Amino acid sequence: MSVSHRARAVRILGVVSASAALALGASGTALACNISEFSAEAKCDGDKGVITVTDVDPAGVPATVTVYLENNGADVKKVGEQVVKGSREGTTITFTENWKPSAEYRIHVKATPYVDEDIKENLVTPATACKKAEEPPASTPPASTPPATPTPSASASKPAEETDTPAPEPSESESTTPAGNAPGPAGDSNLAETGANSNTGIIAGVAAALVVVGGGAVFFGMRRRGANSDS
């Protein structure tokens, strides 16, 4: 083989080797870590807002993720910072942040010596804020129970004549007056004074009987005396 052919072969081999080295270096860098392997999203966890960052780096290179709240292109505050080790399936980290609708956040990723930059396009939150969990409807109040009918007391159930209330005592003038000699109207007072009442009739009957008995006794006495004189 001539010198020229040998030199040409060496040159070709060197070019191929350099190309392979560059290809391997590029592929190694791509496999190690890349900003395109990171993504961010604003979500709701119940009634609270959160920001999640997912790393799908299959090499699992540790990367520091920092989240900033933006306003007119400037950092307003630092929300938080966490370290994530990616995986082929994806590894997600969560930042608690009660974000407002249409807010803007900058997410910076640093994985030395591969990545030190922001995720392309800042994160903009949804236009609707997180809603509070709906409370269960209040239970229907129980139907009102009609008032119980009051039970009549024992005293109310007794007839008027059976009540224990004592009758008023008669006055002195009423208690001394006999039932049959109740004073009548003013026009009848003379009849009461002459004995024209039930007791007067009884007394008159007894007196008449005594008169009859007395008269009979006198009659028989006189008759016996006459008989004795005749003898």
**Main sheet?**
5 strands, antiparallel
| Helical proportion, percent range | 25-40%
Number of helices: 5
CATH topology tier name of the domain at 35-125: Immunoglobulin-like
Determine the strand fraction and express it as a percent band: 25-35%
What is the name of the CATH superfamily of the domain at 35-125?
A: SoxY domain
Task: Give the overall silhouette.
Answer: rod-shaped
- Write down the CATH class of the domain at 35-125: Mainly Beta
Q: What is the averaged pLDDT score?
A: 75
Return residue spans where pLDDT drops below 50 for at least 5 consecutive residues.
26-30, 175-180
User: Which CATH architecture of the domain at 35-125 is right?
Assistant: Sandwich
- The rounded Rg comes to 67 Å
How far apart lie the N and C ends? 231 Å
State the secondary-structure class: alpha+beta
